[in-house]
Design a protein that fits this description.
- By secondary structure, the chain is of the alpha/beta class.
- The protein has three domains: 4-86, Four Helix Bundle (Hemerythrin (Met), subunit A) (Up-down Bundle), CATH 1.20.120; 102-285, P-loop containing nucleotide triphosphate hydrolases (Rossmann fold); 307-438, 434 Repressor (Amino-terminal Domain) (Orthogonal Bundle), CATH 1.10.260.
- It has 19 helices and eight strands.
- An eight-stranded mixed β-sheet has the order 3-2-4-1-5-6-7-8, sandwiched between helices.
- Helix 5 (114-127) runs parallel beside helix 6 (142-155) and helix 13 (329-342) packs antiparallel against helix 15 (366-377).
- The longest helix is centred in the C-terminal third of the chain and has 28 residues, at 296-323.
- It is elongated and about 95 Å long.
- 39% of the residues are buried.
- Bound molecules: guanosine-5'-diphosphate.
- The site of guanosine-5'-diphosphate has 19 residues, from helix 5.
- Guanosine-5'-diphosphate binds next to helix 5.
- Residues 426-440 are annotated as: Disordered.
- Residues 268-281 form the SRP54-type proteins GTP-binding domain.
- It catalyses: GTP + H2O = GDP + phosphate + H(+).
Length: 440
């Protein structure tokens, strides 16, 4: 699989950042130097690696750190976004023509996987409910037509061929055939060469002119890394391709081609192929690739931490409502929900100025919390907001609803009133002064 080495190296650099807490500009620069080396080792184009790390450094140093993330995570987030953008952002699909069939011209060097991927693409389109037609226009290799026929049959797609007649003529006839027989996709397999030569390019240019393709897809072999990026650049200059099928990802451990093609040629990778079987083709998703490079662990931990921080934000909000004497049972319930994630009400109280670690030795039994939460859950939202309106019959209903006694309900209400009283004291002049101190 691609990116193995890169993922590991990036993970190590980020580990170092994490251990630092606050990041200085030189921490970020040092990390980006490591990232650049890792990218070069993954066979990413030198200029691409330099520009990418430059952009990341600029953003990481200049950007305000989001409240929900640590500085190290902010850097990972930026790296993730920049890698995704580098590979083409949202990912691009096949174009749809105003009138079918969509004509897809497949080109590429010999052995890149053109014929195999023409068949894979036909198989994919078929499974999506389309009616693809394959056209055999590689007429120089005697076995090529046969190969396409064998694979086409496996894919369940018919193959149009005219033997060794001029491939441009064959392509034109294939378009007519596709129209006549109601095929909505025509996939044209063309001849490859070991190297780009004028004769091949001339034939492809004539074919392009003759059939006016909706997409010109270049198949490039991921295993040859930067060489395939150079091939893509040349093909694009001569043919103005619309996208790339990156093949043999199963044999590529470095990933340089996947990372550089879009940046160097400006053309997106539309599909990624691996293995020789027909189902080894996927739409290329830059964001998923970026996650793979960063190691799923990093991205997941990023999300988790952010969520946890959001909980803390909620707790702070509750603390502020307490200070403003607006606390009701809904807030209490919210606190109980947080209990298992961030510890008992203590966590919230500790956010009050002056409380800090004074509560460190206080123990709160979680089961009592659960029972109390059950009582509040038996109330209607209105009752939770207006506990003072709970009369005897409401209390009976609530107690029955949670399988507890009316006394338990009363105890909760007493506790709550105590808390409210306490908060009222805070809510006076002294409290408001404190609130200003907290920025509230
Ligand atoms: P063409 O000359 O560009 O048409 O290339 P072919 O489609 O004939 O493929 C050349 C060789 O690479 C064949 O042996 C294929 O089975 C093999 N091949 C094609 N695509 C892949 C791939 O994604 N992964 C692997 N491992 N082999 C592939």
């Amino acid at each position: 699989m691609p990116f193995e080495g890169l993922a590991e190296k990036l993970s190590n650099s980020f580990k170092k950042l994490r251990s630092k807490g606050k990041l200085s500009e030189s921490d970020v620069k040092e990390a980006m130097r490591e990232v650049r080396l890792a990218l070069l080792e993954a066979d990413v184009n030198y200029k691409v690696a330099k520009e990418l790390t430059g952009r990341i450094t600029e953003r990481a140093v200049g950007e305000e750190v989001m409240e929900s993330l640590t500085p190290a995570q902010m850097v990972i987030k930026i790296v993730n976004e920049e890698l995704t953008a580098l590979m083409g952002g949202t990912g691009e699909r096949l174009k749809s023509p105003a009138h079918p069939p969509a004509i897809i011209l497949l080109c590429g060097l010999q052995g890149a996987g053109k014929t195999t991927h023409a068949a894979k693409l036909a198989y994919m389109l078929k499974s999506q409910g389309h009616r693809p037609l394959l056209a055999a226009c590689d007429v120089y290799r005697p076995a090529a037509i046969k190969q396409l026929q064998v694979m086409g049959e496996k894919a369940g797609a018919p193959v149009f061929e005219r033997g060794t007649q001029d491939p441009v003529e064959t392509a034109k006839e294939a378009v007519k055939h596709a129209k006549d027989y109601g095929h909505d996709y025509l996939l044209i397999d063309t001849a490859g060469r070991l190297q780009i030569d004028e004769e091949l390019m001339d034939e492809l240019r004539r074919m392009k002119e003759a059939v006016n393709p909706t997409d010109i897809l270049l198949t490039v072999d991921a295993m040859i890394g930067q060489e395939s990026v150079n091939v893509a650049k040349t093909f694009d200059e001569l043919l103005d391709i619309t996208g790339v099928i990156l093949t043999k990802l199963d044999g590529d451990t470095r990933g340089g081609a996947a990372l550089s093609i879009k940046a160097v040629t400006g053309k997106p990778i539309k599909f990624a192929g691996s293995g020789e079987k027909l189902d080894g083709l996927e739409a290329f998703h830059p964001d998923r690739m970026a996650s793979r490079i960063l190691g799923m662990g990093d991205v997941l931990s990023l999300i988790e931490e952010a969520e946890q921080r959001l909980d803390e934000k909620a707790a702070e909000r509750t603390a502020q409502r307490m200070m403003q004497n607006k606390l009701d049972l809904n807030d209490m319930l919210e606190q109980f929900r947080q209990v298992k994630k961030m510890g008992p009400i203590k966590g919230i109280l500790q956010k009050l100025p002056g409380v800090g670690n004074k509560l460190d030795d206080v123990d709160i039994d979680d089961r009592i919390m659960d029972r109390t939460a059950a009582i509040i859950l038996s109330m209607t939202p209105y009752e939770r907001a207006h506990p003072e309106e709970l009369n005897a019959s409401r209390k009976r209903r609530i107690a029955a609803g949670c399988g507890q006694k009316v006394e338990d309900v009363n105890r909760l209400l007493n506790q709550f009133r105590q808390t409210q009283k306490l908060m009222k004291q805070f809510g006076g002049k002294k409290g408001r002064k404190l609130m200003r101190g907290m920025g509230g």
